[in-house]
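hi! just following up on the protien thing from before. the input was this:
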Amino acid sequence: MKRNKSKIAFICAHAEAHNTGMLSVDMAAYSLVEQLRDCVEADFFNVEVDHSLFSRGEAVFKYKKLTSLNQLLPYDSVVLWGDFLSCGYYHRKDLKNRAKKRGDKDVGCVKENDFLPSAELLRVSNASCSFLSKFICFGGSLFGNDSFDEIDGEYKADLSVLYKNAKLVMVRDPISAMYVARYTDWKVTDSLGIDAAWLLKPSSVLSWSERSEKGGEVVVGYSFGRAIAKSEELLKCSTDFVRKFGDAISGSQSVKVIDLKWLSSKKEDPLGGLSNKLGVINSCDYVVTDTYHCAINSWREGVPTVCIGMGGDEKSGTLTEKKKEYLYSAFNIRDFYVYSEWLASGRQDQVIKKLVNKLSDKKRIDCAVLDMGVARDSAMMRLKSALSGEC
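and the predicted 3d structure came back as:
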């Protein structure tokens, strides 16, 4: 007898066409559903607006605006997918700023540090245990929260109820796992997961050492679009750094430096643009970037990636530079993390010499990529089990 497919509601952050990283997060959900297509069917929601994302003229994602938890009642599983949907700062600041830009009428009535109505998604203390047991919280992060979230007893109580009753909770970083442990009395490792973008299938099965032995010119891809791009001085220093790094890492071989244009996109075909960018990354021997999800997607493709970030940046907020540092610390690849302050203080040659030395250790690189793959496979196994049951 054929089983009915499980119905899944994925609730995503609003993936705008130019935000390639967010697109990769949502495409990971799409590819997951494709892998489980004999068992599940899915609808996609966000808490902002109805919209669609296109690939070569076809609407791959059609997001419905979530206005009430009642919309989720017909589903067997409800997935809070990726990044910041459980983060108080995201609801109090980011969503409010975007609502103002859209000209939403109700945002003017909301006080500075209050949540928008969209945060009903988190107001679950009065929901039934059977309803909350449908929830899966995957790839989220809480480290962007600030002091307002710590003193908001209602917010923390709601998160505690949600997490304790959910089918599965896997946050993307160790700091967030510590927050979850405080809210639930769990062990830190109980909720430790990975960023959802890791779950996209790599384009190549070659290890980096196999790829690097093919010979020919050395290709270095780069993309700057966050804090570095906002400072002319840092952008110049970082661009000079990429050129010098390419010359040093290529040795006697010729070198080609290419701009990945990670944060640029055509509105009419953003998903096709993502696919093209991943193809370009896969052709690179190394990547240098200041962008969190560009780094994740590059490492997932098996490409050693140097990430640049501001060491003195604020620790709260969804765009804090610290999230990149946490990522590189979690996988113990800190040797490939560079503070932008170093580049602006005349230490470029010293930094490049160290990087070239570390990157010449092929076993170290392949070990790092293997560790990431193990974390990915472990998270994928737990997530698939929660979504499909005995399917």
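The two ends are 13 Å apart (CA to CA).
The chain has a mean pLDDT of 88.
cheers
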